[in-house]
Amino acid sequence: xxxxxxxxxxxxxxxxIEHMLFECPxxxxxxxxxxxxxxxxxxxxxxxxxxxxxxxSFKINSDAAWIDEDKEACISCMIHNFKGHVVDGFxxxxxxxxxxxxxxxxxxxxxxxAGNIGATSVIFEIDAQAMIGYLSDVLDNIPWKIQSHILFIxxxxxxxxxxxxxxxxxx
Length: 171
Hints:
The protein is α/β, with parallel strands linked by helices and 171 residues long. The protein has one domain (17-34, 52-167): 2-Layer Sandwich (Nucleotidyltransferase, domain 5). It has six helices and five strands. It has helices spanning 17-23, 25-29, 41-48, 99-116, 129-135, 144-157; strands at 58-67, 72-80, 86-95, 121-126, 162-167. It has a five-stranded mixed beta sheet, with helices on both faces. Strand 1 and strand 2 form a beta hairpin. Residues 32-39 have low confidence and may be disordered. It holds the Pfam family RVT_3.
């Protein structure tokens, strides 16, 4: 007997990356706090697909939504191929002390994820402009809460054959 193509969590739709990240009501619950509004990930995904990476490269969008009162965040990553199709991704809840730490964690996780799938040519897109500045700054000017994350990002990004981290405005 062949395995069912249906989502194991909701059994309502075919299990695709898009379904797991954007549509499955059970998967959404893992990243929604009881008091928070979920960012519109479908809109973000559509905007991210507007520019595809060059052939042989992957575009990786990472993002975070932080809830101050709960000290938790939802971090996510979407990996697009040169055709603009989502080929993989994740979304998960983390506990952290600030929105900046959440953005740093999201990028760290996205970099690790890209390495784990064997990507060699990558473009990381983030909407946290401060992170771009910290990635090109000396360690003395980086807030201590994200220093270890920035060091990790700089170290791991350099392992890709071709790499870029750039700011994208999400409006």
